[in-house]
Amino acid sequence: MRSREILSRGAPSPPDDPGSLAGPGILDLTRPLGESVPVYPGDPAPVFRQVERDGYTCTDLRLTTHTGTHLDAPSHYLAGETSVDRIPLQRLVGKARVLDMENAGDSITAASLSGKLQAGKRILIRTRASGAGSFGPEFPHLTPDAARLLSGSGILVVGIDSPSIEAPGGDGSVHRELLGKGIAILELLDLTGVAEGDYFMVALPLRLEGLDGSPARVILLADSEGAA
Q1: Which end of the chain is more exposed for a tag (fewer CB within 10 A), N or C?
Q2: Which residues does residue 85 pair with via DSSP β-bridges, in sequence order?
Q3: Is CATH 3.40.30.10 correct for 20-33+64-222?
């Protein structure tokens, strides 16, 4: 039987409330990955082509390593450095702190973060961008002095709900400061309705060999006593 294309564009529609799939005590910070997911300005939108072959369905995915909720590996900005498949999983699983920066403005500075960090933790920054369906020329981001504060504070992971942790048109200095210290970066999280406080985070990218990043599933659980 010859392959027959059943959908030229578009994946099956997600449930009306994707968060309802997480279950009690689990907060899913992952944006649904479909063709309508917001992308960094200038990046290509993902394309899904679903086909039926001999009684089963298979979907061709065309997207970048930085589509949807995703993780930046050091090799994203630093040639020859750690790729996404080489990031130790213990960095991506453990205690995390959500910070409410919705009233900090689009430029999140060192002063905005001062006194809110804790060494060894993973920091997730909630801004006005959570749940936004698209992004204009400006969106919330870290300033270089905020990146320097984070890199000197023993932080393992920094996440944000905008399409990039760096200002639009930035020179890469924020990424290089964080990634150069081995800090993994999560971007395009959805922290809608997530209260500021401490949690237990699991962030799992695909094991894409030698690549610079990957879409990731990111969830929070109630903070576990004694977790790393």
Answers
A1: N
A2: none
A3: no
User: Could you give the maximum distance between any two Cα atoms of the chain, in Å?
Assistant: 64
Q: Which two tokens stand for residue 132?
A: 């936004």
Q: Read off the amino acid at residue 182.
A: G
**Which strand ranges, in their side-by-side order, compose the sheet holding 56-62?**
4-7, 47-53, 56-62
Residues of the chain with pLDDT under 70: 1-23, 223-228
Exactly one of 66, 70, 76, 175 is catalytic; name it. 76
Asked whether 187 and 216 are in contact (CB, 8 A), the reply is no
| Alpha carbon 124 to chain centroid, angstroms | 10
**Tokens (6 digits) for 60:** 């061709």
- Non-local (6+) Cβ contacts of 119 within 8 A are 153, 154, 155
CA–CA gap between residue 106 and residue 175 (Å, rounded): 17
Question: For residue 64, what are its two tokens?
Answer: 């970048």
Residue 155's nearest CA partner among 103, 94, 211, 197 is 94
Report pLDDT digits (tens) over 90-117.
Answer: 999 999 999 999 999 999 999 999 999 9
pLDDT tens per residue across span 13-46: 444 454 455 667 899 999 999 998 999 888 899 9
Residue type for position 46: P
Alpha-carbon dihedral 111, 154, 73, 185, rounded to 10 degrees: -40
Please give the structure tokens belonging to residue 170: 């930035």
